[in-house]
Amino acid sequence: MYTALRLQRQLRAELDAGTVEIVVVTPDPYMTYRPFLPEAAAGSLSPRHVVVPLRRVLGRCRLLIGAVESVDHARRTALLTTLATDEEGSGPAALAYDELVLAPGSVSRTLPVPGLAEHGIGFRTVEEAIGLRNHVLEQMDIASSTRDPALRDAALTFVFVGGGYAGVEALAELEDMARYATRYHQNIRPEDLRWVLVEAAGRILPEVGDEMGRYAIRELRGRNVDVRLETRLDGCEDRIAVLSDGTRLPTRTVVWTAGVRPAPLLAATDLPLDERGRVRCTAHLTVEGTAHAWAAGDAAAVPDTTAEKPGTPCAPNAQHAVRQAKVLAENIAASLRGRPLKEYAHAYAGSVASLGLHKGVAHVYGRKIKGYPAWLMHRAYHLSRMPTANRKARVLAEWTLSGLFKREIVSLGSLEHPRAEFELAASPPPDPDPEQSS
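Structure tokens predicted for NADH dehydrogenase:
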């Protein structure tokens, strides 16, 4: 989205003349701003305000809602399916192009853990974030209404696997929300909730440094979060999370945030890939040894020209991806006009992470910040990076309102099955009991 947005500005004259067309193929008609997913899950932000509608911001691009199945760059052709493909029964359509920009990002990196595919919950989309919010509140409703102590304990046990940004921020925000929600449950106390963070490494939030990572652990443990370091999830069958240290946790909630891997699409191209499955790129964001092909973001192995060790690739994070998009668009425009390309270079500025409402950690330009100032910095930074003034204003308005009024704790789980009530109403009435009829 960022590349297309800047490209339609760079090529304004060519678009007006009709000599250039920008085609964007994407499975969703919106871009999700992932750093705000934890706040959407906790109810601090409306889900529609953490996404950017592409048709509004990419008004000069041709938008195709669908999925690219494969790319044959030797023939400059991509095979794609759209929402109409199944209805038409025609199969994937071929789309010819002159210049290819690959930015499919990454997907969750799952492991062959027994039961994970059946019971695990991801946290990379707005649908997953809202689904998890509804799920947590639903488990609290189950616990408050059951007479079975084992079911109650399992419903109030929440296991998060992965100590990176996604896992820590999601757990912290949802723990805040659930603890607040207990005041409206007469038979659930905050100490009845059990939150477990499982991390295979010896630390969490490595991006903010060891000191701030240790502070984050102390902060979470002070809120009764069970942080298990150097521990793996070995299984979650039969609603029991089995950890590598031998612990068995009956639970109805296992959230998997243990890393990412490049999008599977890359394996269905004829472009050069590195050992991690990312597209090999140059510092100009061109695909290595390939003309008319470009890549950026999590899917691209772009050399970090500011690193001490030559050949070190840029980390797969938003800080690099957004800045790469700007250079990529400018280089495509320069290439079409016969001008020299410029290299992508960005020194890592640092990281910020939220640990729930009014709590956070930050390590920015060598400075270590924690608590309320870090949380405020987290919000200010991501608000500045949120695309469009429209979305910035809506997010800021919601934050203001959430500071003035009580937190929303409504579960809308029925949204996941919108036709359930109508189907019940439309179903035939049950047959009367023949004994009563006689």
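The chain has 15 helices and 23 strands.
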